[in-house]
Amino acid sequence: MQLPRRTFLRLAAGAAALPPSWRIARAETYPSRPVRIIVGVPASGTLDLVARLIGQWLSERLGQQFVIENRPGAATNLGTDMVAHAPADGYTLLLTGSPNAINATLYDRNKLNFDYMRDIAPVASIERIPLVMAVNPTLPVKTVPEFISYAKANPTQINQGSGGIGSTGHVAGELFKMMVGITMAHVPYRGEAPALTDLLGGQVQIVFSTTGSAMAYVKAGSLRALAVTSEKRLDALPDVPPLADFVPGYEASAWGGIGAPSNTPVEIIDKLNKEINAGLADPKLKAQLADLGATVLAGSPADFGKFIAAETEKWGKVIRFAGLKAE
């Protein structure tokens, strides 16, 4: 039976009006069951601790458990793959971070089952953590210019330790090498802790370490901090200058945020973003992040997307210049 045109138009208009109200209702009822935050690193690392702080905040704000699920492996690719192929309903989230932006170029995309930029939607940025350019105190340098001069005069004497090929500390060192024209042999470790252990022992001469990991050694005098990789001095290390003071334009940091499978409803993404930004404005949560050496990085999903794109492009250039390949 064919409906009269006026009746058809009235019904069509009513149907068109349903989706917005349905979307609003969906956002209002979300979450109605526990939510998983997948973390692609082992428990107790900085990214894991950030996830737990945000998970606790969201659990308290939204009345459902946000459960941290560690899925380490393949330099965070295992956990990212899991989220990329999860239902786009807001119940499986990703603690995304600088490793994802690095891996987008470091790994052959044909060997991955996902495309990070395509398959993970940005939800909310959380924090960024500057690195410390730390050297063994026996190295006869006390400033960045002295280090550069020493490295140029002794091109086979500088070994850079890092938490592994493609780690944030590794590419931070490669960026430094690229910008100042020096040679450093890279020595990868299975994590940042053993790299710092060998830096303390003199087996390597330099590590670009996360602030939280290096700070105690620097304050104790066991390591010498030549610079921080942020654009400004850090409150925690006020006497250590930014590397950009000597190498204009240099900046490197580890960072973290929340992502979701692409096509996750925008209303759910916006709701999560709003609650996370509220947490980042909370003095207690800000202090907890500061204890990790982090500064808050608030913004909209679009802001986070632009930040991710810029970081992916930046590290892509470094990786291609250095000819880095994943193990």
Q: What structural class results from the helix and strand content? A: alpha/beta
The 3D shape can be described as globular
Order of helices and strands: HEHEHEHHEHEHEHEHEEHHEH
Mean pLDDT: 92
CATH topology call of the largest domain: D-Maltodextrin-Binding Protein, domain 2
Q: What fraction of the residues are assigned to beta strands by DSSP?
A: 15-25%
Q: What is the CATH-assigned architecture of the largest domain?
A: 3-Layer(aba) Sandwich
The CATH superfamily of the largest domain is identified as: Bordetella uptake gene, domain 1
Largest sheet report: 10 strands, mixed
Overall CATH class of the largest domain: Alpha Beta
Continuous helix count: 12
Q: Residue ranges: pLDDT <50 for 5 or more in a row? A: 1-18
Helix-residue proportion? 40-55%
Radius of gyration, in angstroms, nearest whole number? 23 Å
The tally of domains stands at: 2
Distance between the termini: 65 Å
Q: Got a strand count? A: 10
Structural topology:
Layout: H1 5-29, E1 35-39, H2 46-62, E2 66-70, H3 77-84, E3 92-97, H4 98-106, H5 116-119, E4 120-135, H6 144-153, E5 159-162, H7 168-180, E6 185-188, H8 192-201, E7 206-210, H9 211-220, E8 224-228, E9 253-261, H10 266-280, H11 283-291, E10 295-296, H12 301-322
Parallel strand pairs: 1-2, 1-3, 5-6, 5-7
Antiparallel strand pairs: 3-9, 4-7, 4-8, 4-9, 4-10
